[in-house]
Amino acid sequence: MMVNLPRRYLQSVLWSSFSLLLILLMVPATASTLTSPAASSSAATGTIDKPVSLSPHLTPITDPFAATANNTPSDFSWYQLDLVLSPDFSTDWFLVFSRIPHLTLDVYLPENGNYQVKRMGLDGLSAANPDARTIRLPLTSGQSHRLLFKVSQQSVQTLNPELWPASLYSLSEYRYHALAASLQTILLVILTAALAVMVVKRTLLYLPLSLHLSAMSLLMVALNGRLFRVIPHSFDPAQLISILTVLTMLSALTCYLNLFRTTRPTPRSTMILSGAILVACGLTFGFIFATGNTIPSLPLVLLLCLQSISLSVLHYLLQPDRKGQPFTINLIKSSDKKRRVFSQHFRDNLADLNLSDNTTELSAPILAIIDATLDQAPAVLLTLENNEWQLSSLSPRVKRQVEKELEYFVTPLTKLLTQGSDDQIHFQDKHSNSIWGFHLNDDGERQLFLLLFPGKYQKETISRQQALDLCSYIKTILKANQQTRFWQLQASLDPLTGLLNRNHFFHEAEKQVEACKQQQTPCCLLFIDVDDFKRINDKLGHPAGDKVLVDIAHLIRDSLRHQDLIARYGGEEFVILLPVTSAWQGAQIAERIRKRVEQYNASPTPATLSLGLATLSSELSSLNQLINEADNAMYTAKKRGKNRLEPGPSCSDIRLSWQEP
């Protein structure tokens, strides 16, 4: 049976295998490298083009200067080295020791049948030679030279002197100091940049990286050795170097884990971080357990520097606020298809959420129920209407945060419109705070979104499932409320023309009339009838007559303002309430409507209107009185020839006298 694995799993297996292979190759190399490369030839014969390690040629001896032999343990180890310089060599030679000084290192050089002592350890520092690690050897070709070494047994550093030609040593030192200075400069520049970003952006994301770069920079300074020769101390420098190396490696692992914790990487970046962690573990394991030397080799130091630079690059590429983006953003697909059963705590609080009425302001009850149900989880409601965002929250702090960074929330939230109903957006800021985004409601013209602030990713005060349960319930209530409002709206409209029906017109118009009376503002009412509509029905049929009514209704509605009320009063009759409108203004509106219908050529047959106008006055103070006077004026218009406007007795404006026959 064939099993189809996802591609990202195959990539993870391949990358992990490659990383393990690299570790297996790296550990032996780390174990076998020494502080300086050693030559394969001896000092006695052959051509020397690189330094010769003298460690294999050292012979342990007892104290040659002891008066009598005794078995008392000594604090020092003695070594003997016999050098015979070939006659083919005629150059100057340097005896070079490790850059990390020993606690005690005395070198006995033969001179006139006796020995001259060179104190190369920390206990022999002098102002004349504070950086003693080299001795110019007075070697004579063809003669044997016996050197003695006295080393403190307390030092964990092995004695590994090297024999260098003078010219080769000078060139090597120049290259080493140039490389060390370059790496140190790069590390200090990156460390300064990391500290500046951490201070300016007030984020702790770069704190582990800054500590790692500091440890690496201190290790580079310590490996130079001069620090131990300048500052007096009593501890073994090799032990400090070993501790700094381990701290550098462990801090690198901490940086990788911090990247995993504070970012939501893609599968590719996850493989990169996984491979880097395996390599870092390999370096740490190889240094602690596989190498016999406590001082890191030069290749290992270069690898650690490369790792520090790579870590800085990864922080830049994976940082949440890269290119001004303050969040990592992830779409979380809902996979729970089971029917959820709310706990008693949820049911007790959700019982108060009742939005089945005509409430238009939903923010307050929703925020109140969220605050009561989800403790210590501030919420922000975002409403998108007419391309404008409105924010509501019971927490001024989180509201200010969302307002400040609104542009970063808008695009991810609007993507939820094309996703599943239970999908969500997970935001995580540079302080590792989680923010959950949900889409609650869609009624066409208005979208409602919810942002929840549960807190730290590791210490969320609520579970994700609790938030999903609450949002699912709110969506159900809002959907029911939307459907209720839809059917209420359908019950208030005329099914043919889409205008208000007679009952709903009376309900709304009475409020408008009372408002105009209280504010002492003018108000007009138009009563309209389609001329000879029965003839249109008899001639063309009822479907054609219905089309004429629909077309006329659209023409009238398009000629009115947003605050005007229009309704189909019955049959071919329409009524219009014009609040805050004088009789003269009402007559102009009526004439505009009449002319547009008269000039309309899309209907099966030409149609005209007869209109009656009434205005609010001391004699006409109710909606019914306005309708009766406007209706009588409309019949007067029909008697006077149709296709005209007739003002009622309440229209006392002298400018309306042009309507008289």
Largest pleated sheet = 6 strands, antiparallel
- Distance from first to last alpha carbon: 98 Å
Strand content: 15-25%
User: How many domains?
Assistant: 4
The overall average pLDDT, rounded, is 75
Describe the structure.
With 661 residues, the chain is an alpha+beta fold. It folds into four domains: 52-65 and 73-169, Immunoglobulin-like; 173-324; 330-491, Beta-Lactamase, CATH 3.30.450; 502-659, Alpha-Beta Plaits (2-Layer Sandwich). Helix content is 45%, strand content 19%. It contains 17 helices and 20 strands. The strands form four sheets. The chain has a six-stranded antiparallel beta sheet, sandwiched between helices. Strands 2-3-8-5-6 form a five-stranded antiparallel beta sheet, with no helix packed on it. It has a five-stranded mixed beta sheet with strand order 17-18-16-19-20, with helices on both faces. A hairpin with a 2-residue loop joins β5 and β6 (114-119). The radius of gyration is 46 Å and the shape is rod-shaped. Residues 521-650 form the GGDEF domain.
List the helices and strands and how they pair.
Layout lengths: L6 H26 L19 E2 L5 E3 L14 E9 L8 E4 L8 E7 L2 E6 L14 E4 L6 E9 L9 E4 H35 L6 H18 L1 H5 L6 H26 L4 H24 L7 H21 L8 E6 L11 H7 L12 H11 L5 E7 L2 E6 L2 H9 L1 H10 L8 E6 L3 E10 L3 E11 L7 H29 L9 H18 L3 E8 L2 H8 L1 H17 L6 E6 L2 E7 L3 H16 L10 E7 L7 H17 L5 E3 L14
Parallel strand pairs: 19-20
Antiparallel strand pairs: 1-9, 2-3, 3-8, 4-7, 4-9, 5-6, 5-8, 10-13, 11-12, 11-15, 13-14, 14-15, 16-18, 16-19, 17-18
Keywords: Membrane, Signal, Transmembrane, Transmembrane helix
GO molecular function, one term: diguanylate cyclase activity
Protein name: diguanylate cyclase
